[in-house]
Amino acid sequence: MSRKSDQILRTKFAERLCHWMIVLCFFLAATSGLSWFFPTFSWLSAFLGTPQMARLLHPFLGIAVFVGLCFMFVRFVKYNLPARSDLIWFRNIRGVLMNRHDQPLQIGKYNAGQKILFWAIMGAILVLLVSGLIMWRAYFAEFFSIPVLRMAILAHSVAGIGLILLIVGHIYLAIWVRGSISGMVTGYVSRAWARQHHDRWAAEIEARETTQGVRK
Questions:
Q1: Which of 22-31, 101-110, 150-159, 185-194 comes out lowest in average pLDDT?
Q2: How far is C-alpha 80 from the geometric centre of its chain's CA atoms?
């Protein structure tokens, strides 16, 4: 079997490009945010130049992350809807954490854990957007009362720290599941990887390829 035939396209170029742009924008937004939240991390604002420049760019970077995630939501939401087969994954969570693959788990393109992460990230970015707009002093803050601004600051801080933790978990799992990062760089994963980690999705792809081959 040739190397090309042993690969499955998992993520298209536009989706990969958006993903890595989100990574860059989120890194800059998160580091600047942390530089204000924790005084000991004040040096992190240097990634955007001066503290003044970081304060100016932070909201725009946050909006860029939101727009990018909206694109990803449209492209991936159909794969992250709850399915009855997700219960199999939850019942075998211990084996999943131990990286055992001795039985089929009927996992689609994304497993139940990835689906939870997907919806948690989308929820966090929505809270960040709304609270960020309310507290954006240059444009909108003057339209809200002090108590509302304080609540927005609290919500923004909690959602920001929560999103950072979610992203750290996402990075850890991407490193832990060997082949995930290269799949997001090249767009392709091996058939063996697909069968091992997303057996139902791999079976669906191969069935579609067989059907198309018969038609030809």
A1: 101-110
A2: 12
d(CA 164, CA 31): 10
Q: What value, to the nearest 5°, has the Cα angle with vertex 208 and ends 187 and 178?
A: 35
What pTM was computed for the model? 0.90
SS3 198: coil
E-only strand ranges, the chain: 7-9, 188-190
- Bridge partners, 8 (sequence order): 189
Beta bridge partners of 9: 188
For residue 165, which amino acid is it? L
Q: What are phi and psi of 2, to 5 degrees?
A: -70, 160
**Which is the catalytic residue, given 58, 170, 197, 198?**
170
What are the residues whose beta carbons fall under 8 Å from the beta carbon of 19, sequence distance 6 or more? 11, 68, 72, 184
Distance between CA 123 and CA 61 in Å, rounded?
Answer: 18
Rg over alpha carbons for the chain, rounded to the nearest Å, is 21
What residues are paired with 189 via a beta bridge?
Answer: 8
Q: Please confirm, yes or no, whether 58 is among the known catalytic residues.
A: no
